[in-house]
Amino acid sequence: MDLSITTLILLVLTPLLVWRVYNRIKARMVRQRSIVSRHYTGVLVFGAMILVPAAQLLDNITNLGALAVGAAFGIGWGVWAIKRTRFEDTPQGYYFTPPMRVGILMAMILVARILYLGVEIYANQGKGIPAPRLTDDPLTMLCVGLTAGYFGYYSAGLLLWRRKLRKAIDLE
After folding, report:
1. Neighbour count for residue 100 (Cβ, 10 Å)
2. Structure confidence by residue, pLDDT tens digits, 144-171
3. What is the pTM assigned to this prediction?
């Protein structure tokens, strides 16, 4: 492998990039205000992360299966995470604290896979090999399904929590 100055710089900067992404994700896994529009956005965005590739993979059963298995496991972890979430109903508003470690893990799985694809594209640059699409690899689809299933279900769980609170207020 030919180590050019660009390759060396990328090798040095990659751990810094991973650390920055990790810190950004970690900063989001703290006590936060529950905003219903954000929860709806989460359901829509992460639902689309499953449905869009699924529509493209109807002729590729292996990758579609990997996406479905990833989504199923992600939803399972989302169910577990909602049970571990600390919910607060305060006079200042509604707050929740997600389980930090599992949220970071789910996000970093997708980040790591996308980083791997970036390295693969960079390594094949100039060799006449076409850049891989996101839907080309079953492992990538597994990671996408896992992350989207987890965060999509988690957002839906937060919406259900807010709906229960709303029903309790309406009954009073």
Report:
1. 14
2. 999 999 999 999 999 999 999 888 776 6
3. 0.89
